[in-house]
Specification:
The chain folds into 2 domains: 169 residues; 147 residues, no CATH class. Helices cover 50% and strands 11% of the residues. It contains 13 helices and 8 strands. It has an 8-stranded antiparallel beta sheet with strand order 4-3-2-1-5-6-7-8, covered by helices on one side. β7 and β8 form a beta hairpin. The radius of gyration is 28 Å and the shape is elongated. This is Putative iron-regulated membrane protein.
Length: 388
Amino acid sequence: MTVKKMVGKLHLWLGLTSGLLVFIVAITGCILAFEHEIKSVIRPFQYVEPVANGTVLPPSRLKAIAEKQVPGKPAKGVNYGELGHSVNVPFYGVAPDYYYQVYLNPYTGEVLKVVDEESDFFHFILHGHYYLWLPEEIGQAVTSYGTLVFAMLLITGMVLWWPKNLNKTNRNKSFKVKWKAQWRRVNYDLHNVPGFYALSISVVLAVTGMIFGIDWLSNSIYWATTGGKTLPEYRQPLSDSTATPQFADPVDRLWYRFYPTRPETASLFISTPELASESIIVSINHRPGTYYKTDYYNFDQYTLKELKGEGPYFGVYDKAGFGDKLRRMNYDIHVGAILSLPGKILAFCASLICASLPVTGFIIWWGRRKKKTAKPQRRVAIPEQVRV
């Protein structure tokens, strides 16, 4: 058996075993690519009319209003959007799972909407994309290693596609779909040609997706991009719960420090600690709609002393090293948001092609299988005198 035949067998069986998983992950990825844009249309309560020189309410006021809308559950913080956006206050927890967001007018405190995110369509799609709607500890491993199999399929597919030489005939076969051919040939071309054009983007989507769920790959890439550093486990710095509180309203004090100085095009999140040991998190996102260009600060809730953390999700973005910046970018690269709308269109098209590959591949395999199992025609004996 030649090397190419061995690669073909490997490609076939990897594809048959992972086809359904790849289809689900890819098609849900298509839907999630434009989640932000779709929500900006179907959720008008995300926007308010800006008030010139208007006074924005501090976190303590907005938190108190929001907690009346979700009785018995503590708010996790207050998220101030860029100019012209409403404020949202998140509530979430596990066992039982819940996730609410209360949208408020930042100037008046008027409740604009209470959204149960657990019942949201995109939350359902996201759960399928990450976990295949399985329990999270099982689903994440299945999707992550299924994506690893898909990456191997991309590599073996490239080997099978690669033409022996690039004369005109092979170029037409390899780079163009022969639309006027029989449907089986068109299906064959639809498996090979779009798959080639989407290969590089598909590999990027696969690798950035695996970083979320495969620790050894995540650690290896971080090690390689930071010059040999070990990726530390995320640990939020703790407040000194034995210290004497120096401020009655520490969250508001931090907000007054950061909110007036932030750019109007940036969003600001400030957490509201529940536990005595929690620190206060302040994050300023300089490019709302993405997540990577965010500055993270942690403060002791009793003394307001700034606390330092270790890892990519601490400190000012511009002062981070290359590897830490790349890790912050991982999600935005994965969904294409790093390149704004053109990037999302590329991610959408690549995901759609990835979703089509298991379908066209199965049709190719099924057609060849039927051809192999077709009964040969019975030969009829012809009398000697007729043959003469």
